[in-house]
Design a protein that fits this description.
15 strands
C-alpha cells in the first residue's frame, strides 16, 4: 500500500510543486485555507490590473495542476484545531509536510500577529493532532534562522541568531518540532531552504519580483550595492531534496540545508535578467536593516546522509524560470 502524505499549505508555491512530484509515487492530499499568499494577499503589490489578473491565473493554474494529478485539496484552516484534528484523524497520513506560514519576511515584520497566527498556531495544531499516528513530520524552516552569516558557508551545526519576526518564528518552530520528538517520539526532519525561485510563485521573492518588473517595464530595484550573495535554489532541487528525505531513514530527527550550495550575488541575477530582457532600468536603494547578510549554505550533510544532489545552477534554473514566465504571460495576455 502506498504511504499517505499530507501537505499542510499544499496549494502554495512550494506545496503544490512538491505535491505534484510526490503524487507519482505516494498517495498525496493537501490541506490549505487558501488564505495566505492568495490573490487578496498580493493585490497591493501591483498598480496594474493586468498583473493582478496574471497572479490570479497563476493561482488557478496551481489548483488545476492539483486536480489534473488527482491530488485531493481539502480547503480548511489549520488554525482551527478541532477541524484539522478531525481531518487528520480521518485520513491518518503516514507523513506530514508542514508548509503553512506567512512566507515573506517584510510582511512578517509589519504584521507579527498574523504571522504568528498562520505560522506557529498552525504548527502547534498540526503537531498535536498528528502526534499519535504520524511516522515522519517534515517541517519547513528557513535560512533566515541563521541571522547574519558569520562565515563563508554555514552548516546546520552553526549557531542560529535570527533577525526580525520571520526568522525568529521559524526558529521557534524548529524548537517546538524537536520538543515533540523528545516528549512524544514524533520523528521529524527540519528543512532550511534559501532564496527559492521557480514556476507559479506569487510570494514576491526576489527572482519573481525582478521578472515581473521586467515584464511590466518597471524599475528593477536592488537593495544595497547588489554584491550581497544569496544561495539561490530552483524549486526542482528543493523538491528532489524532499524526495530524498522521505526515502532515506537517515533523514529522521535531522536538520538539513536544502539549497544549491553555492551563493551568487544579486548583481549576477541582474545580469541574467539583462540577457533576457531589453531596456531594463535598474536603481539601487538603501538595504533593509532587518534582512540578514547571507551567503552559501553547506549541503554536505544532505549529500552524505540522504544523497541529495542539486542540478540547477542559477544560470540554468533562472533561465528556465524566465522562459516559463514569458510563455505563461503570452498565453494569457
Amino acid at each position: 500500500m502506498k504511504k499517505k502524505i499530507c501537505i499542510i499549505g499544499g496549494a502554495g508555491f512550494i506545496g503544490h510543486n512538491i505535491a505534484i512530484k510526490l503524487s507519482k509515487v505516494y498517495d498525496v492530499f493537501c490541506i490549505d485555507s487558501l488564505m495566505v499568499n492568495n490573490l487578496i494577499s498580493v493585490l497591493g503589490n501591483f498598480d496594474s490590473l493586468k498583473f493582478k489578473q496574471f497572479n490570479k491565473k497563476i493561482l488557478e493554474e496551481r489548483i488545476d495542476l492539483l486536480e489534473n494529478n488527482n491530488i485531493k485539496l481539502v480547503v480548511a484552516d489549520a488554525r482551527d484545531y478541532h477541524l484539522v484534528s478531525k481531518i487528520l484523524e480521518q485520513e491518518k497520513p503516514n507523513i506530514i509536510i508542514h508548509l503553512a506560514a506567512v512566507s515573506h519576511a517584510n510582511r512578517s515584520n509589519k504584521d507579527p500577529y498574523n504571522t504568528f497566527d498562520h505560522s506557529l498556531r498552525t504548527l502547534e495544531n498540526v503537531l498535536d493532532a498528528s502526534r499519535d499516528f504520524v511516522e515522519h513530520f517534515i517541517y519547513f524552516s528557513s535560512s533566515m534562522v541563521y541571522g547574519d552569516f558569520k562565515k563563508k558557508a554555514v552548516t546546520e551545526e552553526d549557531h542560529c541568531n535570527p533577525l526580525g519576526i520571520y526568522g525568529t518564528l521559524k526558529y521557534c518552530g524548529e524548537k517546538i518540532v524537536q520538543a515533540y520528538q523528545q516528549v512524544f517520539n514524533l520523528q521529524y526532519t527540519i528543512v532550511r531552504p534559501s532564496a527559492l525561485y521557480g514556476e507559479r510563485c506569487i510570494s514576491r521573492r526576489v527572482g519573481q519580483i525582478f521578472i515581473e518588473n521586467a515584464l511590466n517595464k518597471s524599475d528593477i530595484v536592488i537593495e544595497g550595492d547588489g554584491e550581497e550573495e544569496l544561495d539561490f535554489t530552483y524549486i526542482e532541487d528543493l523538491v528532489q531534496g524532499v524526495e530524498k528525505i522521505i526515502e532515506s531513514p537517515l533523514s529522521k530527527n535531522q536538520t538539513f540545508n536544502i539549497t544549491f550550495g553555492s551563493s551568487q550575488s544579486i548583481n549576477n541575477l541582474k545580469e541574467i535578467l539583462k540577457n533576457n530582457f531589453t531596456n531594463l532600468k535598474i536603481i539601487n536603494k538603501k538595504r533593509d536593516k532587518l534582512m540578514p547578510l547571507r551567503g552559501t549554505l553547506s549541503i554536505e550533510k544532505a549529500k552524505k546522509l540522504i544523497g541529495y544532489q542539486p542540478k540547477f545552477d542559477l544560470e540554468t534554473g533562472y533561465k528556465i524560470y524566465i522562459d516559463w514566465y514569458k510563455s505563461f504571460w503570452s498565453k494569457n495576455f
